[in-house]
Amino acid sequence: MKKIIFTLVIATIMIGCTDLEEEPIGVLAPESFFNTTDDLQAAVNGSYSYIASEEFWGRKLTLSLLLRGDMVTIGDMTTSGRRIEVDEFRLNGDNGMITNFWPRSYAIIGSANYAIEGAASVQASNEVKNAIVAQARFVRAFTYYHLVRTFGEIPYIDFAVREAETLSSISKTPVDEIYQNIIEDLEYAKTWLPDQQPFRSMPSKGTAASYLASVHLTIGNWQDAYDEATFVINNKGRFGYDLEADFQDLFDATKADGLVEHIFAIDFKGADATSNISRDYLASVTGMRGPANEGWSVAVPTVAVFDSFDDSDYRKAVSFDTEAVFDGVLVPWQDFGTANRGVSRPHIAKYYRFPGTAGNNNRDSDHNYGAMRYAEVLLIAAEASNELSGPTGEAVDYVNQIRARARNAAGTMNSFPEDINAGLSKDAFRDVILEERRIELAFEFKRWYDIKRLNLGMEVFGPTSLEPQPNFDATRDYLFPLPNDELGRNPNLLPQNPGY
């Protein structure tokens, strides 16, 4: 538990995001430090900072989710072995991806816990204090939602740690209990958060409801998922949500601030980043290599994945890079592999194409990542509605709204994708929704969670799939292994996850 102890007891709050700057402060005892609501907000901003860090959203967690799914695999095989192990289902508890994003996750949670407990020491109205605590409880729920889906049973820590010894005997918490705690935090957040915030990197009432819809969908509470998703949809004007007119704008860092489709955004600082806090490497690891070492060709779609998108779908053009200029020459994807250690496959364009004020290799991008988009809420509502009542006109319309947006190719209206027609069976419409999620949310760190929640591994990693992975074992690989160093320091966290 050394890493958990360090990050919870010595939880240093760093600069938040571009629009939420706070001076670094140390947090050791909530009752002695928190005197004003500004102090509470600073602690919450520290949690946002840790989310927008290289060890979490900037590479370690998100790259792991990309590689674990069936939409990308390793391009440059000389890359770090820890990445290849994640991709090829050859993980163990010493893997460097896990041992980075695990402690960062608990740093996020630790800062949130200090803010929650610190509120008791602050003299202010409940309305003001509770709105800040609601941010912290949302952040805690957001982080545990990733952890529980990734690892299963984990230590659930919902208190500010004052002494390291407190954690020396902590045990894992059952999955059902973790989900219940996540739901309670999100319900609190939904109650106390405002309808809108100054920035989409701060959660609002609609953000909490959207994540409630996602959580309930994940655990099969169809009615609750439907109720929360339609609450957001029916109040989209109140919350300021809608689909962006041009799908490309969602992945252009120069247009990132204020996108109406973003329900919760992870805001990176661009080339101004001076440490792993607010440092983003996703553009680098997904961009194509070339003579000038432009990108790293780490997470690259297979040709089969590229071919699975219809050429008439504008989202294909937005999602993939199929040509690039190397040394002044326009090179098609079929020739990418001739340059340096590149690989001759189309590459992910969502992060590499328009990274904003990025540095060398497009590292330190200025992206605001849409961790939750309004389009996903529409798809959640459609899926939950279908499970409850089949393909109603309402559910079909939710999907058709997304397809209508996809027909707008930068102002040129296309005829593809066509609207879904009535008359589909419940099973057929379920397949349509899942495929729409695969296309619409491609490379946005959702696909692995869909594979896991729907138990699709044997299908999507089989020998005739888009990404065959012969090592996939359904009895083992729906969970990552727990970090071995944590297990070694605290035997109460044993046993290791099955199969590791």
Automatic annotation (TrEMBL):
Matching SUPFAM superfamilies: TPR-like (SSF48452)
Boundaries of every RagB/SusD domain copy: 345-500
Organism (species): Aquimarina rubra
Protein name: RagB/SusD family nutrient uptake outer membrane protein
Assigned keywords, A-Z: Cell outer membrane, Membrane, Signal
Keyword Kinase appears in the UniProt entry: no
Recorded superkingdom: Bacteria
Pfam families according to UniProt: SusD-like_3, SusD_RagB
Protein localization: Cell outer membrane
Domain SusD-like N-terminal: 91-217
Family classification: Belongs to the SusD family.
Primary localization class, coarse: membrane
Range of residues in the leader sequence: none
